């Protein structure tokens, strides 16, 4: 069987498994991708993501020395619109990809099925290595090389006809496959800068260049410490990830996204999260909430911190009491400090008891950051 015939058969199997797109790339090093990553790291735009500098991420053969080709698959998740917010409810938003089952598990299961089918398709045993997101591999570079899309100004890969709401997985194989040609035109964003302008924290340094330290997704997921005060309002009601740059992308507005598999469909209880419940989340509640979802990526304290910020951004008097309770009772200084900040944002809604709680925190909390945030909140309330 020729490499082209084999590639065609693999596409048939992969599409039957539910993948939206399938492409093939050589396993040669991604030199341009390495240069872009090196420049990104040199500028410090990676923030606390130290793992990005671990190992040569540009060479698939570091993961499978025998690799000759890479099968790159894409799974669309953009077919379901965000639900309208509940009137008067204190709720927080999740990025769309996090509203269903954990995509890592879904993609790994589907890649494993493709992996099992390969020996029969090829006619002999095949050495493979499946990768999903967390592997040290430049998967967006591979997706572009495999013809699945092009690099948008948002730094995301845009797949013509699907947009950017796609998740990628890779299967490294020791088989020669015919490479997929580049994605069909158009191959650029033209003069459009909707994604750049829509970013609520102005995280884009330039087209195709993101300062992750300002990105809402980074701040709500990767950053585990205090979120810079000047960026907190930009989070709005987002508690895990952000879709702002994707929501305005014309390629997503006009995409004819095919129906995603049920395992990636949003859960009814994940479209929005109750912010007060999230702020008061206990260990058992966290395990139930995060089980088999992308929320496993963050710990309970991080979610509570994010909830405190979202409550501060709500402008609602109903947020005051739970924030005061967090300020006085939460064992995490990180949560208490962000609760104090949030109360300062709600200064017009504070009653004498709330101000008294802030004064106590400003004078006697055992953490310096909490005391400083409480003092700043009191100044905002005066």
Helix content: 40-55%
What shape does the CA trace take? elongated
Oligomeric state: single chain
Order of SSEs = HEHEEHEHEEEHEEHHEHHEHHHHHHH
* Low-pLDDT regions: none
Alpha-carbon distance between the two ends? 78 Å
Number of strands: 11
Count, helices: 16
When the domains are counted, the total is 2
Mean pLDDT over the residues: 92
Biggest sheet: strands, sense, closure? 4 strands, antiparallel
Order of strands, main sheet, comes to 1-2-7-4
Strand content: 5-15%
Give the class from helix and strand content and strand pairing. Answer: alpha+beta
Give me a quick take on this structure.
The chain is about 40% helix and about 10% strand. By secondary structure, the protein is of the alpha+beta class.
